[in-house]
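TODO from last week: model histone deacetylase.
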Amino acid sequence: MSSSSAAAVPGGTPADALRRNRILSSKLYFDVPGSKAPVVYSTAYDIAFLGIEKMHPFDSSKWGRICRFLTKEGHLEKNRVVEPLEASQEDLLVVHTEAYLNSLRSSFRVAAIVEVPPLTLIPNWLLQQRLLYPFRKQVGGSILSAKLALERGWAINVGGGFHHCSAEEGGGFCAYGDISLCIQFAFVRLNISRVMIIDLDAHQGNGYEKDFANDGRVYILDMYNAGIYPFDYAAKRYIDQKIELVSGTETDDYLDQLDKALKVAQTRFQPQLIIYNAGTDILDGDPLGNLKISPEGVVIRDEKVFKFAKDQNIPLVMMTSGGYMKSSARVIADSITNLSQKDLIQLGSQPG
């Protein structure tokens, strides 16, 4: 990919200057005391209203359940979790167009994005409060996680990873482009210019692919089931390293393909930050992923990615992304516990 276009270079156009000013005046980056772990979560992440959230297969209380597993089992103290701020309209305009954000004032539009048709009948103010506010909190979490990762070597946003949303279009349960926002903030506030996205959700990450089309600062490794949504052939052109899986791919084959992909990525690009989109919709039985990866396979997958980053001393941000079974939260909590046990992350109190 070339970065020859003016838009790909900071400070090139009035639009770039406006974006930069928005990023510099944002409150989403704040100092987090060393007594906290770089694990970002808010109870506001969880979506619940009148049971309507159950009309989509996504487990909208997944994020809270992950944290409850970790705290109840003694792996993470509740008071060590970092609470993010909500992304404001000005923050969202760093990537999104005003026209797109205005479109979210239509309940019909929101219902189409999250694939729950009855939401069309819900007053928009209620959708803003019960659905879009939790999403905006998760966006704030993804953005802050990059700062934490640069400071601590790693960070986990127990949420986020809305990889189907681009600057001008939402879809697939993704209303805001937190990955694109996280990276744009990192370019300006963390003074970095090379980011690698490792997207191992079962679906193609077409949102940020469109946002970073032909931007040489972002290297995209996307490993997904080519036989399911979103079938975005235009966005595929912007994937640097495309690993297309077939429905029914099993654990050993999956992990083998991942090993090969990471080896190739290591020789092609030297990032200053890795964004890891760790969807658990690859699990066997997931109604939308159509892959057959075991829970142990997901744990090993995450371990491989964290080891890849740690071996090269590259800060890594993990987002939990898709995963449409109740068992997903348990698998993610087990994976985070395993990362801690393997000393790839430190969940316990810092010494001294």
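Done. The domain at 10-25+35-47+57-341 is CATH 3.40.800.20 (Arginase; Chain A).
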